[in-house]
């Protein structure tokens, strides 16, 4: 059964990884997204995440259910609030019978979360504040 959470507390990576361990799974793949300092020539100081929480939880559950219908196990946790450099912002984990499936499903989940789940980031950079990240900055 999937574990899904939006949290304002630091992400406990070891605990979340342990939720994926089971004798039926031969491959566990996790992705941890952290706050990085540099994106090309833009220096980030911190990030604040916000969400339409009810809808974000529904979308995360829908995605987890889709992947778990194949027999895999899913853990999805996204941090909300103000994060400093190197703090974990998102944890995506998939346990599957085979590693190739776990890799593919983990990538699919992370890509889909970024595209469809209503979670936004406000980046506090050295020169200004940006919403949504560098890819959304049209100026």
TrEMBL record:
Source organism, top-level taxon = Bacteria
Name its species.
Answer: Agrilactobacillus composti DSM 18527 = JCM 14202
Q: Name one GO biological process term.
A: Mo-molybdopterin cofactor biosynthetic process
Coiled-coil regions in this chain?
none
A Pfam family that this protein carries is MoaE
Protein name according to UniProt: Molybdopterin biosynthesis protein, E chain
Read off the SUPFAM superfamilies from this record: Molybdopterin synthase subunit MoaE
């Amino acid at each position: 059964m999937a574990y899904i959470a939006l949290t304002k507390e630091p992400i406990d990576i070891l605990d979340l990884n342990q939720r994926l361990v089971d004798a039926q799974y031969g491959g566990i793949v996790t992705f941890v997204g952290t706050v990085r300092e540099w994106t090309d020539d833009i220096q980030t100081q911190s990030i604040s995440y916000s969400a339409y929480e009810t809808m974000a939880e529904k979308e995360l559950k829908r995605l987890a259910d889709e992947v778990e219908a194949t027999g895999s196990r899913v853990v999805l946790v996204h941090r909300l609030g103000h994060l400093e450099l190197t703090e974990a912002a998102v944890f995506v984990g998939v346990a599957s019978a085979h590693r190739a499936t776990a890799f593919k499903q983990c990538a699919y989940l992370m890509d889909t979360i970024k595209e469809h789940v209503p979670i936004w980031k406000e980046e506090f950079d050295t020169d200004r504040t940006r919403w949504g990240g560098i890819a959304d900055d049209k100026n």
